[in-house]
């Protein structure tokens, strides 16, 4: 069997051998061994964001979007108003979720290549007393832009509004310190910066907010207050847990600790990004974002106007060379994306740059 390609995507990602091996056994979901594994999962996730003193971790079966929908339904009452700071597809998705579950939400929109603006938020909040909650996407994976989480949180705290953070693609990568960051909820999933297997989302909720959320959710399976109550009562999941995914994710969290926790992971991904961006810029490609707002998660490159290949050919040839990349997700520019997260290292990025150079030249007309 030839080695599977490296996944240079926003997730699911290339995982470590030990993480995949952890899935090669069965677990009884009500057995003490699995209950202990669930407890370790919840503790380790809280520890990544330094939230043990203030927050509680509630895991949920499903992908990241499941936990976003579950958290919005659990935290928002029908009388609440959510303001979503939008500069990409994942902000738009939160608006769509609210529409579906019958919660009031509106958007404060910014260009896709601009970070959300805390000053504009502060101004809007002064004359919008009806807004009870604000949601922000920490790293907008649409472009890979880093939004100013700390400033947004400070504005919300000062204005007395609750903050909900989609930290899906930033968790365990960018610093999140719940001992100092005023955030009611941090939402993320198992298969991005944690490098676990896909199939698990989780929320870190302020304990007081969780306690006040009984009966809010319009959904049974997605009620994270009930999910929390169940876990607190006997350490068990209400409904069938993805046992192998939990085992793999705990294994990945142990590896994260050995790598030096979030700072260690950030250092490796930042090194990956440096090699990727410097290499592709030297090869004649333009980074879509200003380098100063580019998070070390996934980089968006502009498709050259006179490229020597079509994107589909470029994608296929890179896949043959062992690299799976990602198409762009922008409305106004032709782009492609290359992730620098997962079990990938600067040497992999060097090989990727060489492969790109061999496959396509930015300056020549399409063959
Ligand atoms: C990956 C991601 C999600 C969730 O996507 P799923 O495909 O449901 O896992 C949500 N928000 C952001 C910012 C993401 O990067």
How would you characterize this protein structure?
This protein is α/β, with parallel strands linked by helices. Helices cover 40% and strands 17% of the residues. The chain has twelve helices and 15 strands. The strands form four sheets. The protein has a seven-stranded mixed β-sheet with strand order 2-10-9-8-5-3-4, sandwiched between helices. A four-stranded antiparallel β-sheet has the order 11-12-15-14, covered by helices on one side. Strand 6 and strand 7 form a beta hairpin. Helix 2 packs across helix 9 (243-258), helix 3 crosses helix 4 and helix 5 packs parallel to helix 6. The radius of gyration is 21 Å and the shape is globular. It starts with 5 loop residues before the first strand and ends in an 8-residue tail after the last helix. The chain binds pyridoxal-5'-phosphate. Pyridoxal-5'-phosphate binds next to helix 3.
SSE topology sketch:
Blueprint: E1 6-7, H1 17-21, H2 32-48, E2 55-61, H3 64-75, E3 81-86, H4 89-101, E4 104-109, H5 118-126, E5 133-137, E6 139-140, E7 145-146, H6 149-159, E8 162-166, E9 185-189, E10 200-206, H7 207-211, H8 224-234, H9 243-258, H10 261-282, E11 286-287, E12 298-302, H11 311-320, E13 323-324, E14 326-327, E15 335-339, H12 346-359
Parallel strand pairs: 1-13, 3-4, 3-5, 5-8, 8-9
Antiparallel strand pairs: 2-10, 6-7, 9-10, 11-12, 12-15, 14-15
């Amino acid at each position: 069997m030839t080695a599977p390609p490296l996944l240079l995507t926003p997730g699911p990602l290339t995982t470590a051998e030990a993480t995949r091996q952890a899935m090669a056994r069965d677990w009884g979901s009500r057995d003490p061994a699995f209950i202990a594994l669930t407890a370790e999962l919840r503790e380790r996730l809280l520890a990544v964001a330094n939230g043990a003193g203030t927050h509680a971790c509630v895991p949920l079966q499903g992908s990241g979007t499941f936990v976003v929908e579950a958290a919005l339904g659990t935290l928002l009452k029908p009388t609440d108003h959510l303001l979503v700071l939008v500069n990409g597809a994942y902000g738009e998705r939160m608006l769509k979720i609210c529409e579906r579950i019958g919660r009031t939400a509106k958007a404060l929109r910014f260009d896709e290549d601009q970070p959300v603006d805390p000053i504009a938020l502060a101004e809007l909040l002064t004359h919008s007393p009806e807004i009870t909650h604000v949601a922000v996407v920490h790293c907008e994976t649409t472009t890979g832009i880093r939004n100013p989480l700390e400033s947004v949180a400070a504005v919300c705290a000062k204005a007395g509004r609750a903050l909900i953070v989609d930290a899906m693609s930033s968790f365990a990568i960018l610093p999140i310190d719940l001992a100092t960051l005023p955030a009611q909820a941090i939402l993320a999933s198992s298969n991005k910066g944690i490098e676990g297997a896909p199939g698990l989302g989780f929320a870190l909720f302020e304990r007081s907010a969780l306690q006040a959320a009984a009966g809010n959710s319009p959904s049974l399976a997605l009620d994270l207050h009930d999910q929390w109550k169940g876990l607190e009562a006997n350490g068990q999941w209400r409904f069938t847990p993805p046992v192998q995914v939990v085992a793999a994710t705990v294994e990945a969290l142990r590896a994260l600790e050995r790598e030096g926790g979030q700072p260690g992971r950030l250092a490796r991904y930042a090194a990956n990004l440096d090699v990727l961006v410097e290499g592709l810029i030297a090869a004649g490609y333009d980074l879509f974002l200003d380098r100063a707002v580019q998070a070390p998660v996934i980089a968006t490159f502009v498709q050259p106007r006179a490229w020597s290949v079509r994107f589909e050919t470029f994608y296929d040839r890179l896949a043959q060379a062992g690299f799976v990349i990602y198409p762009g997700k922008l409305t106004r520019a032709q782009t492609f994306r290359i992730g620098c997260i997962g079990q990938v290292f600067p040497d992999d990025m060097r090989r990727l740059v060489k492969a790109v150079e061999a496959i396509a030249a930015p300056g020549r007309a399409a063959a």
